[in-house]
Each structure stands twice: as structure tokens, then as C-alpha cells.
Amino acid sequence: MSSVELTGPPPVAEPDRGGARPSGDGMAPSRRGFPPFLGAIASVLAGTVLIAVHASFYGNWMIDDAAITFAYSRNLADGFGPVLQPGVEPVEGFSNPVWMVLLALGKLVGLFDNGTIFGVPDYILFPKGLALLCCAAILVLVYVAAKRVTSRPALVTVIAGAALAANSSFVIWCFSGLENSVYALTATAVAVVTLCGVNSGTLLTAKVAVSTGALAALAGLSRPDGVIYAAAFPIVVALFTRRGGLAPAVRAVLLSAAGFVVPFGGYLLFRWIEYGRLLPNTAIAKAQPLPDITDIAKAGTVLQYAGWLLVAVAIVCLALVMQKPSKLRADMVALVVPFGLSVVAFCVLQADWMGQFRFATPIWALGTLGGTIVIVETVRKARIRGRVLLVVTLVIATVSSVSGFYTQGEKYRATPKTPFCSVVERDARVTNGVADLLKLPDSAKIGVIDLGGMSLVSRLQVIDLAGLADRVIADYLSTADFAGERRYVFDEVRPELISLIGSWDTTLGFAQDERFAQEYEVLYRSPRDPAAFGDVGVWVRKDLVRDPALLAEAQNYVTTETQKVVAANSVAHLRSCGDVLRPGQTPTP
Known about the structure:
Helices cover 60% and strands 5% of the residues. The chain is built from 23 helices and seven strands. Strand 1 (116-117) and strand 2 form a beta hairpin.
């Protein structure tokens, strides 16, 4: 490291000889007050409890898409491989391998998809508990970073925990059953390891380089856009390395690349062997467009959600920190780079139908970490008059932001997106019941849009009409070839039952296709309201209900049972759906 020159202050910190670590301005923190380890534990626990309290506000709700991963995890743990249903063609209908494997491990040890824990269904408790552990780990990383750069690490951690707990977007999606919590954790880990490398002068060591690459690979295997964090380490190295240190810098970047390529490339090889594709099938179905210059405007929507005044205060404090060379300035560069990458990833991705900025979770984690540090340090170093002005402004900004978060949380709690348990009850159990009534074999097919609850509970072979877990349909949707999808569905697959939500019958062109009317009989069609959970239709192939009495019985059954679920959902959409979920379940009397 002696040949490497870094801009800013000397890169190598004095070794820790058992005393207190230096703060951001080189002054040792006071030894008065709680012992450091007690402060660390208390601050992490306080933030974790606040996050848990907010998460409880949404009850047992989880998004239906999360149950897609649940199904893959179940089948992997049960020995059927990573498939949607036992015995079907392998298609990668998930995009979060790390989360899927964690859930599968939970099932293997009896903590997931097995029954109840403390009276709570484990398919609810385990994913939410795992998410809470990830949030606690994020706060541990906040403390680790804060200890490097400030004399108030516990204060920074408590404030960061409270800020994340107040953020409805962060809490909603971390506890939605999706991978957001582990994704935010891996992104934060990349940032903190890089910061520690810069702070200690060990940025170019093999340990830091390989670690950042491996963590970036985990981020990329948590969500496809997570691969962007592989660029964090090389960018930081480029910003700090001068000409004389070019060779060690290149070596470190190559080591980081190796740390990324080995695990991520290994999964790509597995993907190719198992699924025959280099991209997850979900990415093909969604047909992510190339970035456009106008995408940058999405960053403004994130700032607006966080609160313009609070963001402005953080930016001013960051500018004050960055205006002159200091060790803190160098450390903040290591945080700003991955934060900037998280914003770029958010802007590039298509707008998400689930709302509440689902793709912004890493932004909240990294922005809160960096913003809290610069605000605390600016307040600490300011003169009395400036400190009073800053604190007053912060109070006003915080009240405004928290008010906005509360409004967003209330709104989402009142009408959460597609509760997976409601899909289990409305789609899977009702269609299982009508399949029993019609005496359909387990090999019969059902075409669906809401895939998660169906894949867990349907006894029929599920055909994903949205293409996430169907290779052929994904290819058609990637080019918006709806006519091709209809030919495939009506001429080749010919599902015995079809269940569509909202306006998908129009979007896919089913309603306009003569074959749909000729070959399928409606069993139930709700009043058309795309915004309502109950906007659903169920159809059966006509050759299965030639007897008018059987058709009338099936129509009455589906109508009665569906309306029961819709009515219950309007007042109890945050509920669970029984102690266990198994294929073949029908509505309870």
C-alpha cells in the first residue's frame, strides 16, 4: 500500500491500540456515558423495534408476487428443484435467487411453509422475521460506518433507525414478502465495506476488493438491477487513485471483479444449464426498455416522497462536508458513489405497478446512512447560532416528511396491492372447488394472472398468462405479440379454466378474440372496476359443461364463493389465510 497515493488526507489510520477510535475530525470520543458496546446494542435494538412497530401496522399483508418465490422455495426444499410446481418444465419465474434460497433453507429447518409459530402461520412470520433481521443488520452496518467517521455512532444509528422506521416505502416493501430487505442489506454492505477501506487506508487490499465484489454479486442475485453495485468499488478506486498508484489500483479492481464474477457467473452457468437462458424469464416477459434521458426525472419523484425540505437540508450538510479536504469528505465519497448507483438503477427501471416506490429500497437505506452522518456531524461542528438554525429547520423538515410518510402508509394500508392471501382464497381455493365439482384431473390447466397464491394452492397446472413463469408466453409478451399469445393459449394449451383480473382480458385481447367467446363459457364476471380487488372473471371450456345443469351449478358455486372473498377482503385485507397452504384446498364452509 505504500506505493498507492490517495487524494485527501493520509490513507492509513493509526492502528487501534485498545483506546477509542478517532472520530471524523480526529478527536477521540468521550469515554463518559454508556460503554460503546451497550450503546451499539441499544441503538440497533431501538431502531429495529421502531421498524417492527411500523411493520405491524400492515398486519399479515404480503404482496401476491412474493408467493411466486414461496412456491419455488417450497419445491426446491421438497426435492422437486427450483420450479413453480412439481413436475412442470423448469422456468425461472423468480428474479431473487438469494431470497428464494433463504426461504428454502427456512423450510428445510421447519420454520417456513410447515405450520404455525407462536400461533402465527410461518409463511407469514418467517419472511417477515427474516426481513426484520435484515433491517437489524442494516442498522449494525450503520453503526459500523458511523463509528469510523463520527464520535456519535449510537446517535447516528438511532436516528437512522427512526428515519427508516418512519419511511412507509421502506417498511412496506421490506415486509411485503419480497426480497427488498436482503437487497437493501447487500447494497448497504457494499457501501460500508468500501467506506471502511477508504477510512482505514486498506481500500486496495485483496480483502476489501474481493469482499465488495462478492457483496455486489449477492446484490445482483437479490434483484437483477443489483449488478450495478459491481461498479461501486472501481469508481471509488478511480476517484482516489493517483497516477503513481495505478498498478495496485488495477490489481484491486481485477480482484473485485473476480469476487463478483465467480459467484454471479456461477449462477449464470446454473441458469443456462437449468433454464436455458442467461436472463430470468421475468425480465424477458417484462421487456425492460433501454434507458432514456427522460428517465432521470424519476429521481425527482423519490426526493418528493422523502420530502424536499429534508432532502435539501441533507444536501446542504453534505456540501458543507465536501467543501474542503478532510477524512470525513473521503469517507462520504465512499457512500455517495453506491447511493448514486442506487438512484441510477431506480431511474432506469420501468415504473412499477405495485406503487410506493418498490424499487427505491436501497436508496432509502443508503440515503439515510449518508444523510444522517452528514447532518449529525454538521450540527456537532456548527456554532451555536448555526446549530440552532439547523436544528429548527430539521425539526420542521422532519415533521413535514413524517406527515407525508404517515399519509402514504395510511393510504396503502387501506387499499394494499393484491394481498396474496386474498388471491389464495379468491382464485386458488375457489377454482379448486369448481375443478372438484367438474371432476377435472390434477393434470388439467388453468390460465391465470395473479400467480403467487395460485402456484402455492392450486391443484391444477398453472399457466401464467402474464408470462413470468411461462417461457413461450414471455417471448410473445417481450415483443407485445398478443395475437401470438392467444394462438398459443387457444390452439395449443387450451386450459380447462381461465381466471383473469382487472382489464387483462382486454389487454391480452381475449375479449376481442372470437375463439374466446366460442370456446369458453363465463362462470363469473364481476362488475368492471379495474381499481377493485373483486374485479375478476372466471371462464370454463365449453366442452366441459355441456350439461346446462352442471354449468348452472358451477356458475352459482364460483359466484357465491368469489363474492364471499371479495366482501371479506374489503374489511379484512390484512389477514392470513389459514395455518397451512397446500395444493387442493377449497373454500371452508
